[in-house]
Each structure stands twice: as structure tokens, then as C-alpha cells.
Amino acid sequence: MVRRNALLSAVALGASAALLAACGNSASQPPAALPVTHAVAASPSPTPSPSPDASASIPADLTINFEPPTTTDPKLLAVTADAKAMVYAYEEALARGSVQDPLVHTLVTQQADLQITELLTQLIGKKTRPSGTVTFFKVTPSQTNGFFGVAFCEDDTKAVPVTVQGDARQGNAPTGSNALRQWGVSFGKDAKGNLVINYLSTQVGGRACT
């Protein structure tokens, strides 16, 4: 993925302490530590159902590596699958240059929908998309007091920017801290009690990713 220098502030619930400590920028504010916010109570916690990522349409010149977590807990694996599906849908929207690409908006709700729209608006404005390889690593799902979260890092050192229209190369892949993005995804419950992504945050160069 191209280096996305716009920062999007939000809250990533249930992620590991090391990742949460570094998360939390907005596009209009300097980096700041995230407050702890409980968007939706979860008692008792429902068992989430995994979501597929194969429904996303990814360009042939782009490879996405989403490393699996070390956990074997079925609930944590399920929310990780939901976060992975959201990432694939997000990459589809970038590749199409469409802020309103429908798939990603079906996988997020509430504040997360606004946040993914803002991030896509900023990145699509560059009229480029990633080619090559984007790797998501340090995938860390967690559950704390009934609240689920998934934190992970994005590595764009092998993601060469190309134009959305015409696939012409536009410069080189980012390097150093500019090539790393820290993500935090948190879950709440919808009206039917199902777990849904309702908050997310991203930060370029997050310390937990170095």
C-alpha cells in the first residue's frame, strides 16, 4: 500500500497494551494517546462468527499478507477474521479509487464507518493505489471485560504506488517509519447482539510496529 501519511484518530478497544499506548491520531490533530472508551457493553459476550475476506476484489499486481495470530481461542480468531475482511475491503476501495465502495461499509458501523470514510477520502485524493506486497503483522486480538479488539501493524516497504487509472508507477515504496502503520480495531454489539466493528484508529509510524 502507498504510504498513507494522513492520520486517523480513534479508539482501539481490547488491543494489547503496547499497541494501544501508541495508537491515536486524527487527521487534524498531532499524535496523542488514546483514551479508554467503552462504546458498547458486552455482557455476556456473544461468540462472533468469522467473516470471509475472499469477497473483496484485489488487483492482480497486489499481494496482501495478513499474518495469523498465535491464539487458538475461537472468539479471538473470529474477530480477527472480521478485522481481516475489513482490511481486504479497504484495499479494494483504495484500488478502485472509490470512497463509497460498498463492501467496506457493510463491515463497519457507527463511528468506524465515518473513520474509514475519512481515511479513504484522504488516501484516494492522491489518485494512487498500492501494488506489490502489503503485509499486516503483529496481529493481536484480545478480550478484556467483555470487549473485543484487534491490533496489528501494516508494512508498506514493498508496496509501490501506481495510479488508479492506468497503473502507471508513481515513485517508490515508502521506507523507514513512513512505511509502517499501526491499526486498532474495536468491536461493539449491534441491535441483535452481534459483534460489529464500531471504532478504529490508525497511526503512521506507530512505535509498537518498529
Describe this structure in words.
With 210 residues, the chain is α+β, with helices and mostly antiparallel strands. Helix content is 23%, strand content 28%. It has 4 helices and 5 strands; from the N terminus they run αβαααββββ. It has a 5-stranded mixed sheet with strand order 1-2-3-4-5. Strand 2 (128-144) and strand 3 (147-163) form a beta hairpin.
How many helices in DSSP terms? 4
Number of structurally distinct domains: 1
Structural class: alpha+beta
Low-confidence stretches: 1-52
Percent of residues in helices comes to: 10-25%
Mean pLDDT across the residues is 80
List the helices and strands and how they pair.
Elements: H1 17-22, E1 62-66, H2 74-96, H3 102-106, H4 110-124, E2 128-144, E3 147-163, E4 180-189, E5 195-204
Parallel strand pairs: 1-2
Antiparallel strand pairs: 2-3, 3-4, 4-5
Features:
210 residues; alpha+beta; Nuclear Transport Factor 2, Chain: A; 5-stranded mixed beta sheet; 4 helices
Quick summary of this structure?
With 210 residues, this protein is α+β, with helices and mostly antiparallel strands.
